[in-house]
Amino acid sequence: MNTVGPYHNRQETYKYFSxxxxxxxxxSISHYHETLGEAxxxxxxxxxxxxxxxxxxxxxATYCEIDLDKEKxxxxxxxxxxxxxxxxxxxxxxxxxxxxxxxxxxxxxYLWTYKKLEIGFNxxxxxxxxxxxEGKVKLVPNTKIQMSxxxxxxxxxxxxxxxxxxxxxxxxxxHRIHWFSIFNSFMMVIFLVGLVSMILMRTLRxxxxxxxxxxxxxxxxxxxxxxxxxxxxxxxxxxxSSHPLIFSSLIGSGCQIFAVSFIVIIxxxxxxxxxxxxSMLSTAIFVYAATSPVNGYFGGSLYARQGGRRxxxxxxxxxxxxxxxxCGTAFFINFIxxxxxxxxxxxxxxxxxxxxxxxxxxxxxxxxxxxxxxxLSGQPNFxxxxxxxxxxxxxxxxxxxxxxxxxxxxxxxxxxxFIEMYFIFTSFWAYKIYYVYGFMMLVLVILCIVTxxxxxxxxxxxxxxxxxxxxxxxxxxxASTAIYVYxxxxxxxxxxxxxxxxxxxxxxxxxxxxxxxxxxIMCGAIGYMGTSAFVRKIYTNVKID
Length: 545
Description:
Elements: E1 3-6, E2 14-15, H1 36-40, E3 58-68, H2 70-81, E4 84-90, E5 93-98, E6 100-102, E7 109-122, E8 125-138, E9 143-155, H3 170-173, H4 176-216, H5 219-224, H6 244-270, H7 279-290, H8 292-305, H9 311-340, H10 348-377, H11 402-409, H12 411-429, H13 437-464, H14 470-479, H15 481-496, H16 502-540
Parallel strand pairs: 7-9
Antiparallel strand pairs: 1-2, 1-4, 3-9, 4-5, 6-7, 7-8
Helix pairs in contact: 4-12, 4-13, 6-7, 6-8, 6-9, 6-13, 6-16, 8-9, 8-10, 9-10, 9-16, 11-14, 12-13, 12-15, 13-14, 13-16, 14-16, 15-16
């Protein structure tokens, strides 16, 4: 048996025997070990005591009985009122059953007491399991309730590799809307790339023509000429960003999140990770730890190029930025889970294991990446000299202000992913298994292209207004996607789910905040990387005295 909990709150689960069910006579079961991913996801496997042998049919038989006193009856009534249902596994195949039901008036409550199991086998492997709940018994205090079961084995043509296919929902995930949204995003990408290349090709060509014409004027004409545009800030555009320590840590973390997303999606496309409990989470943790040098390399080299001196502090902040955010949220939600006695409460041993991964795997690998980054690409090699005195930033129209650009920058990237967000949210917060990772890969690629295009256009307008504070603006205008995703998660909670209660609500909004922030940091890093290449390119091509 795994867990029991309210149907509408997928994450609010309790041990199966936290309800006063009784246990069968068989005491032990072999071959069970718990993985890190299972421990974090609140899987609590306990043996049911049902005696089942391969290919041995069992006629309906009682396996135990419940002495129903008032306290036990109240527990069952509470469970039935809140639509509790339980999950159990036979040979790692999940099956679900409902605890009981109320009559129409809501006065009498009934418990399902008879589990009718039908197990399909192909050769010597179990390939299909069905559970039917029967035997409705009214809950009356101070009575005995007998729990019974039966097992019927039948031959099945399902191959062992395909036994999880019946749990997938192609009509939901491969719906026309899903294909249409991908097509829609693709058209947006083509439009944006066209727009960016047109703006940049035409306007930059004009700019270059204007600047080269100015080269040919004599000094007198040039002083009278109205010089304007992005060339004016060439002495300040490569000035280090404000707060370079935090900035480079964020860029490093964003590059790492992108690497993790990319690798995990590829692994999920090749391997069917949904067939094993907790395997997705275990894979993500392993890949995150293994890609730590990426974080160190990009964060450390950027910090060195910006002339930062406290590189050890930068390395620590870069290494622990994401783990601290995730663990902090998990720690807070864990208190609520412990208060509720929920199976989601993370055991102390698991916490220690995660901390050990942070200190003994992530930190040393991050150090390796930082040293490589500082030595291989830590020298500032800017195409223009940086002036000693910063140039004053002229006044500009309100819509050119960095704050406005930041708010508007996230709309298009969010527009390209929000339908996929609906499918991802539904598979996480409701009872669907997400398996269309090819879609997810396409959406990730589309998101990257849209983000880079949008930030390049924003930065071009900013530099044209002779404002050289492009580093934070390019990062934040891409990262503002996170704000729109989090706002969408509010809409999803109130209109698409029926969750209730402090535990589920705090779990939902806590982990949605973590997801949105991580997505924002990733988009920000992608936006900054693209823009940085663009800025370097345009200033390399212009002649400067």
